[in-house]
Specification:
By secondary structure, this protein is mainly beta. It contains 1 helix and 5 strands, in the order E-E-E-H-E-E. A 5-stranded antiparallel sheet has the order 3-2-1-4-5, with helices on one face. Strand 2 and strand 3 form a beta hairpin. It is globular and about 55 Å long.
C-alpha cells in the first residue's frame, strides 16, 4: 500500500506540556457527572478551555467529589465546587449546562500524581473574570454615585 506523508505541514511543538503557573482567562466547555471507579461515589468533571494568550485553546480538567464514602473527600470536593460556582456567579445549579461558557480566572499550579509520579497541572483558585470586550458586549456605563461610607 502506498503511503505519503510530509512533516512540512505539521506543527510538532509540544502543545500538551505543563502550563506555566499563573492566572488564565478560561471557561467551562463541558461538564459531566461521573461515577467513581469504586462505584460508591460521584463527581462532576469539568473541562475548561483557556480563552486568550499564548495558551489559547488549551484545556484543563477539574473534578469535584460531591458524593464519596470519604467524608473528607466529599467536603473538599463540595468546597471546590462552591468556589467554582461563586466565580461564575452561581449560587446553585440544576443542570451541568448551567456552568458552560461563563468566563472566569483559573489560577493554575502543579502537583505530582500519586499513581505515576508525574507532574500535572491543577486549578488552585477560581476568581471572577472582569468583563472583557472579546467575551461580553460592554455597554457604556453611566456614572454612579458611591454612597458607601468607606
Amino acid at each position: 500500500m502506498e503511503f505519503t506523508f510530509s512533516t512540512s505541514d505539521v506543527d510538532t511543538s509540544d502543545n500538551y506540556g505543563l502550563l506555566p503557573k499563573g492566572d488564565y482567562i478560561a471557561c467551562a466547555v463541558a461538564a459531566e457527572v461521573k461515577t467513581t471507579k469504586s462505584g460508591e461515589g460521584q463527581f462532576l468533571e469539568v473541562r475548561f478551555q483557556i480563552l486568550e494568550g499564548s495558551y489559547k485553546g488549551r484545556t484543563i480538567f477539574d473534578r469535584y467529589n460531591f458524593k464519596n464514602p470519604s467524608a473528607e473527600a466529599e467536603k473538599i470536593g463540595k468546597q471546590q465546587l462552591a468556589r467554582f460556582l461563586e466565580a461564575i456567579g452561581k449560587q446553585h445549579i440544576r443542570d451541568t449546562q448551567e456552568v458552560i461558557d461563563i468566563p472566569l480566572v483559573l489560577s493554575i499550579g502543579t502537583t505530582t500524581r500519586k499513581d505515576n509520579g508525574e507532574d500535572t497541572n491543577r486549578v488552585v483558585k477560581y476568581s471572577k473574570s472582569s468583563p472583557v470586550a472579546s467575551y461580553t458586549q460592554q455597554q457604556p456605563q453611566s456614572p454612579q454615585v458611591n454612597n458607601k461610607p468607606w
